[in-house]
Specification:
two-stranded antiparallel ribbon; 75% helix; globular; Growth Hormone, Chain: A; 431 residues; mainly alpha; 18 helices
Length: 431
């Protein structure tokens, strides 16, 4: 049996904490907001996550490439993200204790600053991990996925804690306490990140262009047709990423209006049901090395894109009672393929096809297109679809909204299959 290297254990814990921070609130904050009368504002909380991803991952990637070691940037970002999230929790606590309503403005501002510093950490954590593996002579394609899987384990643990733990007689998924949980985990990772292996920065004294000086060289990747297509479809697929995070819990909660369904497990413990998605993600990460080797990066990405069709379609067809709940479970299982196969393979595609001087910036650019432009456009568009099909419809239909999302995912997958050329085939042709 091969001995596990110390660096592997360190990276496992880093990834666990990285995604535990996110899992503490991402799928449950909509339920809390709806409970305090901010249902119509849910889309703005998820839209802000996309807006800050338009520039913060790239900006922090530039800092990590040029100014400050990546592990220190990771620490700084988590420190600030944790403080602002705890601040949001303190505000909600004070308002609730005083018997006053939680106001949208103060909560939204504190939340926005927190996610502004959190979103860059996903790409930076990848860069820190790739750097540590390279220093140990390990292969990122082979050795990173089993490490990254513990990030999903962390996400699941946080989700289940938020679902089942009661504080003051209230489930955390219905309470502001989920904000404290996320903030505390961020502060823990703030300290732990400083123990990661040293990451080099580019200290070249050579005369640089303005683009080089500010790390904007990564944007030159758009001149390459393959990279341009890859980034455009990263944006289009990114539009699907936050739809179920923003609305799945709200959708499942809507069945509580039906007395026959109100006490089903799927309705009362919606966060736990959705956690099956992350459990599937855990298993699917382990399949990536096999699928990458067997099918190549293009086919792996295509599998992910068409998996989104089933993710949305099963939600449209399912119900909380048996046997309809099995379709919800299938949707959650499919999510692992839909999320992992593109996000991890996409990150590896960037890693393998960029030079070291722009690698962190390029990872930030990938995040910008998926969790920035894509998530922003997708969340706003999804909000319009939900309002048209559910909130403002004469005959409200969540199923219709899910079918629209499924049709969109199908068109994106079909276009990608036609336009994006298989990198392996291009390399063989060039050779």
């Amino acid at each position: 049996m091969q001995k596990i290297k110390p660096v592997t254990l360190k990276l496992i814990l880093m990834n666990f904490l990285e995604f535990a921070v996110w899992g503490a609130y991402l799928t449950s904050i909509g339920r809390y907001l709806g409970g305090i009368g901010m249902g119509p504002q849910i889309k703005w909380f998820f839209t802000m996550q996309g807006i800050v991803s338009l520039f913060m991952p790239t900006l922090m990637g530039i800092v990590a490439d040029r100014k400050i070691e990546a592990q220190k940037v990771l620490s700084l970002c988590h420190g600030l993200a944790g403080l602002f999230m705890i601040g949001a929790g303190v505000y909600c606590y004070l308002q609730t204790a005083a018997g006053a309503p939680v106001q949208f403005g103060p909560l939204f501002i504190l939340y926005s600053f927190s996610v502004a510093f959190f979103m860059p950490t996903i790409a930076i954590a990848n860069s820190v991990a790739y750097n540590a593996l390279a220093k140990e002579g390990m292969d990122p394609v082979k050795d990173f996925p089993p490490i990254r899987v513990f990030g999903t384990v962390g996400f699941i643990c946080s989700m289940l804690l938020t679902n089942f733990l009661r504080i003051g007689g209230t489930q955390m998924q219905d309470s502001y306490t989920q904000l404290f949980s996320s903030g505390i985990l961020s502060l823990i990772l703030c300290g732990y990140a400083l123990s990661m292996p040293h990451c080099e920065i580019n200290k070249s004294n050579d005369k640089q262009s303005l683009a080089d000086a500010f790390g904007l060289k990564a944007f030159a990747l758009f001149k390459d047709r393959q990279f341009a297509i890859f980034f455009i479809f990263s944006m289009l697929l990114g539009a699907s990423l936050q739809i179920t995070n923003g609305y799945a819990n709200t959708f499942l909660g809507s069945f509580a209006e039906n007395p026959d369904l109100a006490n089903t497990f799927a309705v009362k413990n919606s966060n736990a049901l959705i956690a099956i998605s992350q459990a599937s993600e855990t298993l699917c990460i382990l399949l990536i090395p096999f699928f990458m080797k067997r099918f190549g990066i293009k086919k792996v990405m295509l599998i992910a894109m068409f998996a989104w069709v089933f993710r949305f379609g099963f939600f449209g067809l399912g119900t909380p009672d048996f046997p309809g709940v099995l379709l919800f479970i299938l949707s959650c299982i499919v999510y692992g393929v839909a999320f992992d196969f593109f996000n991890i393979s996409g990150s590896l595609y960037v890693e393998q096809n960029t030079t070291t001087d722009i690698r962190s910036s390029a990872q930030g650019l990938f995040m910008l297109m998926t969790n920035g432009l894509g998530a922003t456009i997708g969340t706003l568009a999804a909000g319009e679809v939900v309002e048209a099909c559910v909130y403002n419809a004469a005959n409200p239909s969540w199923a219709k909204a899910w079918y629209i999302f499924a049709a969109y995912a199908f068109v994106v997958g079909l276009l990608f299959m036609i336009l994006f050329k298989d990198p392996q085939k291009l390399q063989k042709k060039a050779a």
